[in-house]
Amino acid sequence: MALGFLDRSRIVAPPGWTRWLVPPAALSVHLSIGQAYAWSVFKTPLEKTMHLNGTQSSLPFQLGIVMLGLSAAFGGTLVERNGPRWAMFVSMCCFASGFLISALGVATGQFWLVVLGYGGIGGVGLGIGYISPVSTLIKWFPDRPGMATGIAIMGFGGGALIASPWSSSMLGTAPDAGTIATAFLVHGLVYAVFMSLGWLLVRVPADGWKPAGWEPKTDHGKAMISTANVSAANAIKTPQFWCLWVVLCFNVTAGIGILEKASPMIQDFFRGTSTPVGVASAAGFVALLSLCNMLGRFVWSSTSDLVGRKNIYRTYLGAGAALYLVIALTQNSSKLVFILCAMVILSFYGGGFATVPAYLKDLFGTYQVGAIHGRLLTAWSVAGVLGPLIVNRIADSEKAAGKSGTDLYTTSFYIMIGLLVVGFVANELVRPVKEKYHEPVAAGVAVRSEA
Amino acid sequence: MAEQEARPNRVPLIVLAWAWVVLPFAYGVYQLFLKLVQLFG
Predict the structure, then answer these.
(1) Which has the least CB within 10 A, A8, A44, A161, A199?
(2) Are residues A197 and A238 in the same domain?
(3) Who contacts B41 (Cβ-Cβ below 8 Å, separation ≥6)?
(4) Percent composition of chain A: helix, strand, coil (DSSP 3-state, to 5)
(5) In total, how many domains does chain A have?
(6) Average pLDDT of A5-26?
(7) Which residues pair with A293 in a beta bridge?
(8) Distance between CA atoms of A262 and A260, rounded to whole angstroms?
(9) What are φ and ψ of residue A63, in 5° steps?
(10) How confident is the model over A9-19, as a mean pLDDT?
(11) Residues whose CB is less than 8 angstroms from the CB of residue A385 and which lie 6 or more positions away in sequence, other chains included
(12) Which parts of A109-176 fold into alpha helices (H)?
């Protein structure tokens, strides 16, 4: 495929290139697309100026997350074939154009353009951008794949930290349609410039490159780390892929259950106690959870390089279930216990996202790990619906039954414990991939030189 | 083919690249801590 300056052959690192330039390239993309988590900043202004209800104003975000999963799943193979510069460039074009189309939509009073722009086209930018640096980072950091992907995926968690106050300050207290359209326009232009560092700077290692003084380990008791390669088409035929799908889906469901309702949850929990939580304090709680979500991505994923992928997921799922049980049993007797448990659960949520590329690399090799990761992200799309659905439905029905406070959430917590236990069992079932799925060695090497 | 060849000076590029992503991130973290004060303040 003729891609010119976007082609993989144009970005093979020259001798002496340092791999420490690749994480900032990846971060420039992930810190940008992580803006998606800050969509709520635009919701109320859009509702007021375009006369929308809450469900309608959520549509751009919801479509964006669906498109993220779909484009990561179906675009993963293209990303592997064309390389990270192409992927980052496509991501930038889609993500920035999404904002520009949304600006046009708000300026002309056409909300469908906002949905199509931010959700549809921008959503493709989210999916392609999310997986764009993964396999490249794993190839540059074969000695620390968990840490490398943890840095990038931490960026996705941190994107909202930047976007939320920035967008808020741009919108002001009572924005009109012109202000919102201008804000979308500025977002599109600034993110296009910011993401350009990614595709300009990213390089792939030359064939046969490895870190100085590092030799691949050939199984010193870590049978889970394979040196063989499995294609994306074969990976989805293995039970290992589907076990990991369940692990990711339920780990994300459990985290999102708290994250999505964090503010009303902590207020409900401590209403009528000696330590009530107000709206401003609840906002602080949400910010604290965002920090834990972000730090968990780096800290736990880096830890997995030392303790192994299977063990770290045992912790996420097993300790996560135990922490949910602590909350369910202690109820609102201690604010400190509730906050600490929620912080650790959210760090496991972030860690689960960030560790999974390295887990995939251990099981399926580096050959098409980006494409396999893309397919696995459909678990995220499912969890994104499942988690909020469980917590909201149960809270609504309990409220309708006249209950309040901790009673609104206790059942949800026990369901989350059940899901985490199922995820724990699925993780236990993960075994090395059978040889029949491995690529022939010669073919694997040939394709890896492209990948 | 390890990193053995003579290396051009990449330090300015490394500093610029990391500053490009760290500075906006630091702004976000600062704003976050302002909110955290409300929780424990």
Answers:
(1) A44
(2) no
(3) none
(4) 80, 0, 20
(5) 2
(6) 90
(7) none
(8) 6
(9) -65, -35
(10) 89
(11) none
(12) 111-114, 122-131, 134-140, 145-171
Averaged pLDDT for residues A215-239: 78
Co-location of A197 and A270 in the same domain: no
pTM value? Answer: 0.83
Q: Do A17 and B10 touch (CB under 8 A)?
A: yes
CA distance A206 to chain B (A): 8
CA distance A326 to A337: 8
Domain of A402? 232-448
CB contact under 8 A, A165 and B27: yes
**Residues above pLDDT 90, as percent of chain A:** 55
Determine which of A288, A289, A293 to mutate to test the interface with B (most B C-beta atoms within 10 Å): A288
Percent residues over pLDDT 70 in chain A:
95
Residues B1-41 pLDDT 10s = 444 556 678 899 999 999 999 999 999 989 888 877 766 65
Q: What is the pLDDT of residues A255-312, one digit of tens each?
A: 887 877 788 888 888 888 888 888 777 777 887 888 898 899 999 999 999 999 999 9
The full DSSP string for A292-338 is HHHHHHHHHHHHHHHH-HHHHHHIIIIIHHHHHHHHHHHTTS-HHHH
Q: Can you give the pLDDT at residue B41?
A: 59
Pair (A255, A192) in one structural domain: no
For residues A163 and A121, membership in a common domain is answered with: yes
Q: Concatenated DSSP letters for A192-219?
A: HHHHHHHHHH--BPPTT---TT------
**Cβ contact A383:A255 at 8 Å:** no
**CB-count exposure of residue A179 (10 Å: 0-12, 13-18, 19+):** middle
Pick the residue of A22, A27, A290 with the most B CBs within 10 A to test the interface with B by mutation: A27
Q: What single letter denotes the amino acid at residue A67?
A: M
| A contacts of B17 (beta carbons < 8 Å) | 21, 24-25, 197, 201
> d(Cα A251, Cα A417) in Å, to the nearest integer?
10
Q: Tell me the average pLDDT across A47-70.
A: 86
